[in-house]
TrEMBL record:
Role noted for this protein: The main replicative DNA helicase, it participates in initiation and elongation during chromosome replication. Travels ahead of the DNA replisome, separating dsDNA into templates for DNA synthesis. A processive ATP-dependent 5'-3' DNA helicase it has DNA-dependent ATPase activity.
Residue ranges of domain SF4 helicase in the record: 180-445
Pfam family, one: DnaB_C
Protein name: Replicative DNA helicase
Enzyme superclass (EC): isomerase
PROSITE patterns assigned: SF4_HELICASE
EC number: 5.6.2.3
GO cellular component, one term: cytosol
Tagged with keyword DNA-binding: yes
């Protein structure tokens, strides 16, 4: 028997499946295209089959025919023909393979055993990491997660989707929307005009919500999270700026209408205490999950999202905020590359879990130097890749922050400056500073011609 690729005698593999998939391709070379889309030479446990599949791959890349003669010649050119048992072994494989029809079935069996072997190898490496007491525990955890994801990420590769299949899914989606007119297409923000402009937050979209400090970015995220949770959306909030208690305090203020300062000092009247108790009972049923781990890495965030999606389901992820994340080792001296890495990974998380991901972001101080303080896309801090990776970029602007004598002290403008799949525009909201809460603005339009 051929030498295995690993010396572990307990490593899982299926000799019959390996022989069958190689034999099936020799019987029907056209099946190689479909099987090679997911099966690679390193997936084979037995070295002889690894050599044969690698030879077939090289022939396919050169557009050469795959048959007994060409495969044997290719192996001979690499001095591997004798190692696999000569041309006689190739003939034996074709004779022992019952049919080429199930080539993909055989291939998936080989693939599954390969994944199990990689998991075992990752487990061994994680064990060695854990035994290294000189290594920082945070680095141990990060490296362990990287080992595990190196296995799982290989399964995330996508294949071509034929047009009929893509159109069928799209048709079903449009038909569903036609039967539910008036509903947001995605996860609703709870703000009427914003949902009308965006159609709700769409699956796999990265939405960047940016503003200068003190504008109310966190308050907007929390208001939106509560609005989404109120209709059943399962929301994950990663906060690196505030602790869980501060976030919950703001939520309670929004729900009860009690001033944040009074809640902080526990100076409540009997009526307010009753409202507080009622609100806590109501909010506790919201499917909102908060993680306040500081300086979280995208890899750690992906791990936690995967766990949450498995245990409870996941419809929306919020990050507060992007620039407080940590890309890990290798980016300590280049902040621009670090933010580029983080924004790209946030987009990958949105796509992997097929959910909208909303991330707050800071703006550069360039805004303060201008006469017009309204932010623009070039104000996104530290990396142009934030604009590139995002599907939607929204800015928060409150004139009251810069102009105390403003005519609209409670007005907050949401500037949708980039919308990859739709229109841009400006939405007015009402900001209740006492409660740090955003609400739909009540707009009354008056035709001045009637006054003449």
């Amino acid at each position: 028997m051929s030498m295995p690729l690993t010396t572990d005698p307990g490593a899982p593999f299926s000799q019959q499946a390996e022989e069958a998939v190689v034999g099936a391709v020799l019987l029907d070379p056209s099946s190689f295209v479909n099987v090679s889309a997911f099966l690679h030479s390193e997936d084979f446990f037995l070295l002889r089959h690894n050599y044969i599949w690698a030879a077939m791959s090289r022939l396919s890349e050169r557009n050469d025919a795959i048959d007994l003669l060409t495969v044997a010649e290719e192996l001979d050119n690499y001095s591997q023909l004798e190692a696999i048992g000569g041309q006689a072994y190739l003939i034996q494989l074709t004779n022992n393979t019952p049919t080429s029809v199930y080539a993909e079935v055989y291939g998936h069996i080989v693939e599954r055993t390969a994944i199990r072997r990689r998991l075992m190898e990752a487990a061994d490496q994680i064990k060695q990491l854990a035994l290294d007491e000189e290594k920082n525990i945070d680095h141990v955890i990060s490296d362990a997660e990287a080992q595990l994801f190196s296995v799982s990420d290989m399964q995330m590769k996508r294949d071509f989707v034929p047009m009929w299949e893509a159109l069928s899914a799209y048709y079903d989606r449009i038909e569903e929307l036609l039967q539910n007119q008036g509903q947001a297409l995605g996860v609703p923000s709870g703000f009427k005009d914003l949902d009308q402009l965006l159609g709700g937050f769409q699956r796999s979209d990265l939405i960047v919500f940016a503003g200068r400090p003190g504008m109310g970015k966190t308050s907007f995220l929390l208001t939106t999270a509560m609005n989404a949770a109120r209709v059943g959306a399962r929301v994950a909030i990663f906060t690196m700026e505030m602790g869980v208690e501060q976030m919950v305090q703001r939520m309670v203020a929004m729900e009860t209408g009690i001033n944040v300062q009074k809640l902080r000092l526990a100076q409540l009247t009997a009526q307010e205490a009753a409202r507080f108790t009622e609100a806590v009972g109501r909010i506790s049923n919201f499917p909102i999950f908060i993680d306040d781990t500081p300086a979280m890495s995208p890899l750690e965030m992906r791990t936690k999202c995967r766990r949450l999606a498995h245990e409870h389901g996941l419809d929306l992820v919020m990050v507060d905020y992007m620039q407080l994340m940590n890309a890990g080792r290798g980016y300590e001296n280049n902040r621009v590359q670090e933010i580029s890495f983080i924004s790209r990974n946030l987009k990958e998380i949105a796509r992997e879990f097929n959910i909208p991901l909303i991330s707050a972001a800071q703006l550069s101080r360039a805004v303060e130097q201008r006469q017009d303080k309204r932010p623009v896309l070039s104000d996104l801090r530290e990396s142009g890749s934030i604009e590139q990776d995002s599907d939607i970029v929204m800015f928060l602007y409150r004139d009251e922050v810069y102009n105390e004598a403003t005519e609209f002290p409670n007005q907050a403008d949401i500037l949708v400056s980039k919308h990859r799949n739709g229109p841009t525009g400006t939405i007015q909201l009402y900001f209740e500073k006492r409660l740090t809460k955003f609400m739909d603005a009540s707009v009354h339009r008056v035709d001045l011609s009637d006054l003449e």
